[in-house]
Amino acid sequence: MQQGINNNLTIREASKHELQEISEMTQKAYMNPENNTGIITNAGKLSELVENFQQKKIKILVALLDQKIIGAIRYNFPETDSLYFSKLAVKKEYRNQGIGTQIVRRIELIAKEKKCKKILLDCMFEKGLVPYYENLGYKIDKIKKHQDHHDVDMSKNL
Ligand SMILES: CC(C)(COP(=O)(O)OP(=O)(O)OC[C@H]1O[C@@H](n2cnc3c(N)ncnc32)[C@H](O)[C@@H]1OP(=O)(O)O)[C@@H](O)C(=O)NCCC(=O)NCCS
């Protein structure tokens, strides 16, 4: 881990004018399969993101370095005592430096502040990220089989 980057990293709530940049950054991260599964995942449409954000159905955290967005995550509270997060993304050139981990840790702080008892996420098994989340303390709840991939529901009790 490069200590310098992490010292200068800011993680904060996103604002409306940043939605387009977040959408593009996330889409690019998702269109770039690391593990050659051949499965391209979709980060969703900008119009849906704007609508959900404006209707306060989702919140977004952004990670910034020198005021540039280099990572993001979306979250909401499906129940009063649980937080669900999705679309964790870090720009390719900034990966493997602990930024994704810091974003997830910030989400966990928010969940604790809101007195949540559980954090939920789902991810495509074929992307190879189950061990990444297990390393962060998340456990597999359910694996759902689809025609060309598997979705994994994971959670962490707080
Ligand atoms: C997943 C993602 C956000 C991780 O961000 P990151 O900043 O690179 O993650 P970190 O630096 O915190 O990673 C920490 C550890 O996880 C490991 N790791 C990172 N990406 C991994 C992957 N795709 N599969 C398995 N392990 C991974 C790193 O090797 C590192 O291990 P170490 O601490 O033992 O060296 C980033 O790879 C990304 O944007 N991927 C594309 C979008 C995506 O797939 N999002 C998740 C959808 S569920």
Write down the Rg: 15 Å
How would you characterize the largest beta sheet?
7 strands, mixed
How many structural domains are formed by the residues? 1
Q: Structural class from helices and strands?
A: alpha+beta
Strand order of the largest sheet: 1-2-3-4-5-7-6
Keywords:
about 160 residues, binds coenzyme A, about 30% helix, alpha+beta, 7 strands, about 35% strand, Aminopeptidase, seven-stranded mixed β-sheet
Q: Can you offer a commentary on this structure?
A:
- This protein is an alpha+beta fold.
- It has a single domain (3-119), classed as 3-Layer(aba) Sandwich (Aminopeptidase).
- 30% of the residues lie in helices and 34% in strands.
- The chain contains 5 helices and 7 strands, in the order αβααβββαβαββ.
- Strand 4 (82-90), helix 4 (99-113) and strand 5 form a beta-alpha-beta unit.
- The chain is globular, with a radius of gyration of 15 Å.
- It starts with a helix and ends with a strand.
- The mean pLDDT is 90.
- Bound molecules: coenzyme A.
Offer a quick outline of the entry.
This protein is α+β, with helices and mostly antiparallel strands. Helices cover 30% and strands 34% of the residues. The protein has helices spanning 3-7, 19-30, 46-54, 99-113, 130-135, and strands at residues 10-13, 59-65, 68-79, 82-90, 118-124, 139-145, 150-157.
